[in-house]
Design goal:
- By secondary structure, this protein is α/β, with parallel strands linked by helices.
- It has a single domain, classed as Rossmann fold.
- The protein is built from 10 helices and 10 strands.
- β4 and β5 form a beta hairpin.
- The radius of gyration is 17 Å and the shape is globular.
Length: 233
């Protein structure tokens, strides 16, 4: 479904991605693991069109994405939940969700709103509340819900557990699994490697801009290097 081939991305003269290649197959959850500064967020931003690679290719199915404007990437079926949530703090929960459907003109928006409420009942309870007054967990729910309102075929999730209490982390990951079971393919960036691998089908390990390991989630969970570096063992 999604193919990255030899991506090289720079911030001025800083070489952030050094030949990254990976694929995400339809229906999968693929985890992208790595320490801070490894290039995980850069990878997602490049897929979304927020950064331009100097070299390499990105394809969604058979369509090249390099050079595509971010809003057109959304229209093609890629949703992005950024690190830090980046909700519209001064808008209400409803207004944030409707912003996710901004590019749509079909008649399925109300049905998708109900789907978001089924996944995150708390958002329906907070519908008229200003988003900036929500708790951290509620804001993460809103960020995911907003992305789902674009009806993406592929969802990019950047650190969905960041700053959340353990009980909320479990809830968020259960919901990510449900979103995938409902048919959305997911590329998941996550510091909590144990949680990520518990729901992923496959994974990649990124170190200083390079893919150094890949395999099934089960194989990565048993890999001694992964266990030492990312699972605290």
């Amino acid at each position: 479904m999604l193919h990255l081939d030899g991506l090289h991305v720079y911030y001025d003269e800083i070489h952030a991605l050094k030949g990254v290649s990976l694929e995400v197959r339809r229906g999968e959850i693929v985890a992208l693991l790595g320490n801070n500064g490894a290039g995980k967020t850069t990878t997602l931003k490049t897929i979304s069109g927020l950064l331009m690679p100097r070299q390499g290719a990105i394809r969604l199915e058979d369509k090249p994405l390099v050079g595509t404007a971010p809003h057109d990437v959304v229209s093609l079926g890629i949703g992005h939940v950024p690190e830090g949530r980046r909700i519209f703090n001064r808008l209400t929960v409803r207004e944030n969700l409707m912003m996710g459907a901004f590019l749509r003109s079909d008649d399925g928006i109300d049905a998708d709103l109900q789907r978001v409420f089924a996944l995150f009942p708390r958002l329906q309870e907070r519908l008229a509340q200003v988003a900036g007054t929500l708790s951290g967990g509620e804001q993460q729910m809103l960020a995911i819900g907003r992305a789902l309102m674009a009806r993406p075929r592929l969802l990019l999730l950047d650190e969905p557990s960041m700053g959340l209490a353990p009980v909320l982390v479990e809830q968020i990951f259960e919901t990510i699994g449900e979103v995938n079971r409902q048919g959305t393919t997911i590329l998941l960036v996550e510091q909590n490697a144990s949680m990520a691998l518990s729901i992923a089908h496959r994974g990649y390990v990124l170190e200083t801009g390079r893919i150094v390991l890949d395999g099934t989630a089960a194989a990565l969970s048993e890999n001694a290097e992964v266990r030492r570096a990312y699972l605290g063992e």
